[in-house]
Amino acid sequence: MLGWPAAVSGPLEQLRVALHGPTAACHEQHAAPGSFAATVEALARARAEGRRTTVASWITRSTCRSLVGLVELLAGHGVAAWVVVWPRVHDPAGPAVARTVSRLGIAVPHALRAVDRAIRRGSLPVAVVGVPSCVLGPFAAYGLRVGSAGVYPAACEGCPSRSGCPGVDPWYLERFGAQELRPVPAVPLVKRADAVTRALATAASELEAIV
Fold it and tell me: Domain span at residue 77?
C-alpha cells in the first residue's frame, strides 16, 4: 500500500493507495499530515506513467459523508478500481473507537451514495468490504468478502446470503447489538475481471486496523 510519491518508484505496473476523503482535512483524520497532497500526486504520476491504481477508503464516522465527493476525484485521475472498507478495530476498548466507528445503519447509507455515484459514473469499478449483506440493501451485489468472516448472531440464522456475508465483529455486537441485521435473499455478485477482484481484495486487506 503506497501513500506518497517517495514510495512510487521502480517498474511498478500497479499501485494501491489509501485515500479516505476528497480533502486533506477529511483524509488526514486517518492518515499522516501532508499525506493527502502526496497521495493525489502519486495518483497523477501513476496515471501519467500508465500504472493501474486501486484505491481503498475507510467508512468511518468522520469520512462517510465525504466519500461521495471522492468519486469524481478518483475518476478524474483514472483510478482503475475503488473499494470502501468497514474499519477493522485493533483495540475495541480504546477511547478512539467511539469517535471513529458508528453504527452500520448510520455510516453505511452515506457510503452507499458514493457507491451509487461510482456505478452511475460507469468508469470506476467499486466494491464494499466488511459490511453485512443485509446492510448493503440494493447494493448487496457489490459486496466483496475478504479474509475470515466475523460472527453471525441469532438474527442471521437461516439467512440465504450468509455464505457470502462477512458477518460482524464481536466488539460490534457488544457495543451496538444485532438490531440492524436480518435475513435477506441472496443476490448474484457483480462480475468483475479476476485481476480487478484481486486488486480490490488486496487493497482492502492492506489497510491496517484503524484504531
Answer: 5-206
* Residue 199 near residue 16, CB atoms below 8 Å: yes
- Which ranges of the chain would DSSP assign to H, the alpha helix? 24-27, 35-48, 70-76, 96-100, 104-121, 133-136, 170-176, 194-206
Domain count, the chain: 1
Residue 103 domain flag: yes
182 vs 94: CA distance, rounded Å: 29
- Domain assignment present for 211: no
For 170-206, the pLDDT digits (tens) are 999 999 999 999 999 999 999 999 999 999 999 999 9
- Domain-located, residue 199: yes
pTM (global) more than 0.90: yes
Q: What is the phi-psi region of residue 48: left when phi exceeds 0, alpha when psi lies from -120 to 50, beta otherwise?
A: alpha
Burial classification of residue 209, based on how many CB atoms lie within 10 Å of its CB (0-12 exposed, 13-18 middle, 19 or more buried): exposed
